[in-house]
Amino acid sequence: MSLAPILASRSPRRQELLTTILPEFSIQVSAADETLPAGTPPDEAVRLLALRKASAVLALQPAPGEALVIGSDTVVSIDGRILGKPHSQEECLEMLQLLSGRRHTVYTGVALLRGDRQRVFHEAAGVEFWPLSPREAGWYASTPEPYDKAGGYGVQGLGSLLVKGIEGDYFTVMGLPVSRLWRELRSFAPELFSF
Amino acid sequence: MSLAPILASRSPRRQELLTTILPEFSIQVSAADETLPAGTPPDEAVRLLALRKASAVLALQPAPGEALVIGSDTVVSIDGRILGKPHSQEECLEMLQLLSGRRHTVYTGVALLRGDRQRVFHEAAGVEFWPLSPREAGWYASTPEPYDKAGGYGVQGLGSLLVKGIEGDYFTVMGLPVSRLWRELRSFAPELFSF
Predict the structure, then answer these.
(1) Is the pTM of this model over 0.90?
(2) CA dist., res. A33 & res. A22, Å (int)
(3) What is the pLDDT of residue A1?
(4) Chain B residues with CB-CB distance to A under 8 A?
(5) Which residue among A91, B13, B146, B179 has its CA within the 20 to 30 Å range from the CA of B84?
């Protein structure tokens, strides 16, 4: 039996990062319910959303036992609030102002589904922002970069200039904890790896 | 008077990172003395080597007052030892074994020279390695990746799979602290920036 890995994410960052550990995989995305009960903690939120995204794609497989679906979700958490993607320049500027000169936490959840087996985990990383001047925030919000990213910034690219330092895994902040995922996948789907 | 930025480094990582903040610059490298007095602490070592690399390139300029030279140097420090680039697979495996399952510190120094003005700074970041099995270390040492990198690994690419987490600036580990450099350059050479 061959096992076909499927990434259940549209994110180009996740696609790029997954190539570090898997030479071949396909990408499939299916609509998943992204509503959460009020007050869901961020670690539970990313695990639940990663699982829903992966489950929606597994349900489309004609042979679910031969599919390995990888779902993932990332949120930014600060002051007990969860920040998703900004929908306007105004909302992006509000997020950047909230993050400016302070530390927040990024959570990324990952769900691995294979037939009726599943494994779900998450990683958290702290991110400290430089204090941002209004010109710096305005410049960044005028680029296309923030608008497909949780919290209104990317830790790579131009967004790297906003970040003073991190505590934890850089790729968790980027959206996929590849070094942990590599270790989980080698035990969850060993036939995909030579060691 | 126009100001021509010059990066005094062969590292493709530094070249790529510098494009985040400077749209145009040239690359020039000149031999600099890389010997250090025994017992030089790692922070002094990277500042001194960054300055020597930049000074060697500034000395080649016909109009030093119109040049802005950026020099940089990175070392890995663990147990009071400084690790440079590995020269053989055996030396690379020794370095990986030393780093396995532990935390080390990466220092990157930067020197900015412009005519008779200079500014030198450094950043340090902690890096925690996953415990590496002999197969993992052997696999990584068999790739071309470690051999042009201080400490025998790169924090990006395949080397990302060895790293559990960092504390500090990711780009300091990669070899150029771009977010700090952006802030230093805007005050050292404000005419290169619109704000």
Answers:
(1) yes
(2) 28
(3) 59
(4) 20-21, 125, 130, 135-136, 139, 155, 157-158, 160-171, 178-179, 182-183, 195
(5) B179
